[in-house]
Amino acid sequence: xxxxxxxxxxxxxxxxxxxxxxxxxxxxxxxxxxxxxxxxxxxxxxxxxxxxxxxxxxxxxxxxxxxxxxxxxxxxxxxxxxxxxxxxxxxxxxxxxxxxxxxxxxxxxxxxxxxxxxxxxxxxxxxxxxxxxxxxxxxxxxxxxxxxxxxxxxxxxxxxxxxxxxxxxxxxxxxxxxxxxxxxxxxxxxxxxxxxxxxxxxxxxxxxxxxxxxxxxxxxxxxxxxxxxxxxxxxxxxxxxxxxxxxxxxxxxxxxxxxxxxxxxxxxxxxxxxxxxxxxxxxxxxxxxx
Length: 290
Fold this sequence. Notes:
The chain is an alpha+beta fold. It contains eight helices and 14 strands.
C-alpha cells in the first residue's frame, strides 16, 4: 500500500447547472432540492460522491486497488466475501474474525482494494462483517449562491404507451423539473489522520481532484441539463493536523454577483475571488480551474 498523505486539506468546488435538475428530491416529486426556509438549492454529499465513484470506475477500470464498493447492482455481502476468500477464512454470521489480526486484515483488504472505502469510509457490519472505517474525505451539502427557481416544464411524446391509448390520443404529456441557472458551492475536508487508517495516498488524492474537475463530463443525462465544474480551490496545510481552522479558509473564497438587478443565467454573472491575505501562514492555496 502506498504511503498515506501527510498533509491536511480543505477545498471549495464551484459548479453550475443550466436548464437541468442537479439533484432531485424524492420526497418532493423529484423537484430540485431546496432549503425550504431560504429557497437556496441543495445537492447532497451522496450525489457528489456518486459522481466521483463513477468517474473513478471509468478511468481506473480493471486496475488493482481501484474497485468501487458502492456501485450500481453491487451486492455488499458479495463484496465483503472477497476479503474472506482472499484470506481463506469462512465468515461468521455478522461477526468479525475472533483473531484480532485477522479482523484487521479483513478491513485492510477492503481499504486497499476499494477506492471509495479508502476515500469515504464505509460501514461494512452486514451479515458478512468487514468492520467499519471512517474515510479521510468528507464534504458538506452543496448550496446554491442565490435562491433557485424550481421550474416545471410540460413535455410531450409523439408515441403512446398502449393500443388502448392509441384509440383516444396520439401523444403523451409529461413533466420535467429544471433550474434555469444556479451556481453551487461545495466545501470539503481531507484528513491526514484518517488517511493513515485507510491508506489514502497522494495518488488517491490527485485522482480525487481530477474527479471533482471532470465528473460532470461523464455524467450527462437529459434531466441534469448542462453541468460543469467551474473553480476548485484547495488549501494545503504544512502539517498533518493543520495550520488554520477550516472555516477561516472557506471564508477566503468569496463569490458575489456582478449585477444583482437581474437573475443570474451564466457563470460570468458571478465574481469569484480568493483573498490570499486572509489565508494564514502554513497554508498553501492551489487554484485549479481558475
